[in-house]
TrEMBL record:
CDD domains recorded: NAT_SF
Originating organism: Dulcicalothrix desertica PCC 7102
One protein family per Pfam: Acetyltransf_1
Transferase keyword on record: yes
Highest taxon in the source lineage: Bacteria
Assigned keywords, A-Z: Transferase
Gene Ontology terms for molecular function: acyltransferase activity, transferring groups other than amino-acyl groups
N-acetyltransferase domain residues: 6-135
Listed name of the protein: N-acetyltransferase
Amino acid sequence: MVTYKSDLSNVNWDEMKATLKEDAFDNGRSPQQLKDSFENSYATCIAYIDNCIVGTARLLSDGICNAYLVDVWTFTPHRRQGIASKMISLLLEKLPGQHVCLLTEDAVDFYEKLGFSEGDTCMEKVIGKWLVNHS
């Protein structure tokens, strides 16, 4: 069973670093830099199976109109099981009225299935109605 958490208090950053490296998704950040990156994000989601990290996603946002989706990753043995889709869905719920941008070269079809479209500078999607952030 997959568990999705936004609470970063018990994340094993060394484990995250090692798993990212093992899965060829390591961009060189140290465990402390990973921690700082996630803690400085608007919202985060980490997926676990049996307390092992199997997925990550995070958002950078101004909280009003613009957000950027980054670090979307699912550990290769667990891909194509809906983990990334669920993490993204949980994060997008936190962005009513915002324009969300992301960069990808190899997952265009995946993001299109989630409602993103190719824009001039990035894949993009508006969550709900532009700039309508409160009910």
